[in-house]
Design a protein that fits this description.
alpha/beta, 7 strands, Rossmann fold, about 290 residues, 7-stranded mixed sheet, globular, 11 helices
């Protein structure tokens, strides 16, 4: 991805959150009234035309992309639920790795004095988001610090240390929709960087693809379509992990597993008895680990 280019997969994720909010199928999995402000004109046109949106989502949500949308919503809900618990335990630093079009700071203005938010992402994506804030006459939340990074080339520890991040205080890290597009080395290096610069008690929530028995990306119909979709946008899914490989490596770096939700567990927690047919995406997990 070029430095001047926004992440199109992050924009697509924002469009999914916006559609879920507009269609308002109860119970809402994740409410994001600001997501529609960070998407391009084509997405915005579809979101604003409720009748057209319903016609599109009749095939979009009930076709191959239905579990993809479900995964986007579930991971966001899970991460913010975990943050609420961490905040209740006096964690006041919230680090969004691969922040994309996240709107937490806008949705939670009451936390402006209590929580410092560090949005760490590709510079092109950050500039797009800032431009959209300005275009829609939103003020920049005072508790947000933007930290540009290329996860494949730069050290997270270095960019965090150079910012206002307080390494003596535990932090909550949310790393969503990103590990799929990085090499394994880049993923593990990021966890090592967190371990090197974050205080004990820090938590990381992330999602990942669970590898098949040969250690490769699962060869399912849905994942094939997702890989084609993301490849056309310059961000192909390339990396999947076995649970043992992943959590053994994280344990070596001081992390202990808190929770690992597979597809069935996500369906039970977020998608039971729904009328819109949303479901979790097979072979994707949402997990939480803590630095001890």
């Amino acid at each position: 991805m070029k430095d001047s280019q926004r992440s199109l997969t992050a924009e697509s994720a924002a469009a999914a959150r916006a559609a879920h909010f507009v269609l308002n199928y109860e119970p809402m999995i994740f409410e994001d009234p600001y997501a529609s402000y960070f998407i391009g004109d084509r997405w915005k046109w579809m979101i604003q035309k409720r009748v057209i949106l319903r016609l599109i989502t009749a095939s979009f949500l009930f076709g191959w992309a239905r579990p993809v949308v479900g995964q986007i919503l579930a991971r966001s809900r899970y991460s913010e639920d975990r943050f609420e618990k961490a905040f209740g335990n006096d964690i006041s630093q919230y680090v969004l790795l691969g922040a994309g079009m996240d709107s937490f700071a806008m949705r939670r203005p009451e936390l402006e004095e209590a929580v410092k938010i560090y949005e760490v992402d590709h510079p092109g994506t950050q500039e797009w988001k800032k431009e959209k804030l300005s275009e829609n006459s939103f003020s920049q939340p005072s508790n947000v610090v933007y930290i540009p990074i290329d996860f494949e080339k730069e050290s997270l520890a270095q960019v965090l240390t150079a910012s206002l991040f307080r390494n003596e205080s535990p932090a909550f890290f949310s790393w969503l929709g990103t590990t799929y597009y990085l090499t394994k080395n880049a993923v593990f290096d990021t966890f090592k960087a967190i371990a090197s610069c974050a205080a004990k008690g820090s938590e990381v929530v992330f999602d990942y693809a669970c590898a098949d028995s040969d250690g490769r990306m699962p060869d399912t119909k849905t994942i094939k379509k997702v890989r084609r979709f993301t490849k056309r946008r310059g961000e192909e899914m390339i990396t999947a992990f076995s649970q043992k490989e992943l959590f053994d490596e994280l344990k070596k770096n001081g992390f202990t597993l808190q929770e690992d939700l597979d597809t069935d567990m996500q369906n039970e927690r977020y998608f039971a008895n729904r009328s819109d047919g949303l479901e979790a995406m097979r072979h994707t997990h949402i997990a939480s680990v803590k630095l001890v």
